[in-house]
Amino acid sequence: MIKIKEFGDNQQFMNYNKSVIDENYFVFYATMMSMLAPSVQIMRLYNLYDKQGVNAYCLWYSGTYAIHSFQWDEELLEALSDEIDFSEHSRYAFTGQRDLIVKLLEENEVPYQIIKDRLIYQCKKIMSFDTESQTLQKASIEDREELSKMAYLYNLDEYGKNAHRTPEFMAEIIARGVREGIMYKLVVGGEIVSMAQVMSHDFKSPIIGMLFTKAAHRNKGYGYAILTQLTNLLIANGHKRVGLLADVENKGSIKVFEKAGYQIIYKHILVALPAIAGKE
């Protein structure tokens, strides 16, 4: 039998689910960062569960409904269907466990558009790599203009028709990353060929993001080089695991990630619900 536990605020939710969130840090990271933003309005936070380990961690806030799960069945799907009024969430984004969310929406005949379909990876083991001609360095203020251009191209590659971030927005991300010492570059022959950002660097489990290689330098092993060198640096600095996200359609990147020793730990999706007929 599915039971429900409601939470009055962020802190209650996080305190009660601390062990699950800590163990699955990379799974919850994006949701937690979004939920804790100053402008976000929390609507409802609750857990669904049973004695057999079936679970769903549900967070409804400011235009988003996040549902994370590590074990689910038809009874849980039915419980979620009872708890969510999909007509109320027209134009909402749903995010979380890929298969669960797709099944939930399809069983309730709710149309949706996939925004991001991703795999969440982690790595715990230092990999060997060749540094003879490829140098990993922290980005400096002198690199900001070049890295800002690369960051904007990364945004276009990553989100395609859904890309909405301006060059100015991406330039600010780079500027902040350089100031905080979390932007890295791979230099070959004096030229920056690849870049990467370390997110969540203040915590125990860093995430590598904005991994990008210039188009003219792809298929030369530079993506693998910056990923392995940066992963090794983070592990050598005392981190027990490093995470990253991969688009399921980006087969080339997935091949590089898995070659570097990253393993899939979760399937994640972000979908948008269009306006439901009859509702403005």
Structure characterization notes:
The protein is built from 9 helices and 12 strands. The chain starts with a strand and ends in an 8-residue tail after the last strand. Helices cover 35% and strands 31% of the residues. Mean pLDDT is 91; it is low at 276-280. α6 packs across α7 (167-180). The chain has 280 residues and is α+β, with helices and mostly antiparallel strands.
Task: Indicate the topology.
Blueprint: E1 3-7, H1 10-16, H2 18-23, H3 25-35, E2 42-49, E3 55-61, E4 64-71, H4 74-83, E5 93-97, H5 98-107, E6 113-123, E7 135-138, H6 144-159, H7 167-180, E8 183-188, E9 191-199, E10 207-213, H8 222-236, E11 242-247, H9 251-259, E12 263-272
Parallel strand pairs: 4-5
Antiparallel strand pairs: 1-2, 2-3, 3-4, 5-12, 6-11, 6-12, 7-8, 8-9, 9-10
Helix pairs in contact: 6-7
Kindly state the number of beta strands: 12
Structural class of the secondary elements? Answer: alpha+beta
**Architecture of the largest domain in CATH?**
3-Layer(aba) Sandwich
Low-confidence parts lasting 5 or more residues at pLDDT below 50?
Answer: 276-280
Query: SSE order, as H and E?
Result: EHHHEEEHEHEEHHEEEHEHE
H/I helix tally: 9
CATH class of the largest domain: Alpha Beta
- CATH fold assignment of the largest domain: Aminopeptidase
Report mean pLDDT, rounded to a whole number.
91
Q: What is the H level of CATH, i.e. the homologous superfamily of the largest domain?
A: Gcn5-related N-acetyltransferase (GNAT)
Sheet of most strands:
8 strands, mixed
Q: How many structurally independent domains?
A: 2
Q: How far apart are the first and last residues' alpha carbons, in Å?
A: 37 Å
**How much is the radius of gyration in Å?**
20 Å
Helix residue percentage: 25-40%
What's the arrangement of strands in the largest beta sheet?
A: 1-2-3-4-5-12-6-11
Task: Determine the strand fraction and express it as a percent band.
Answer: 25-35%
* Morphology call: globular
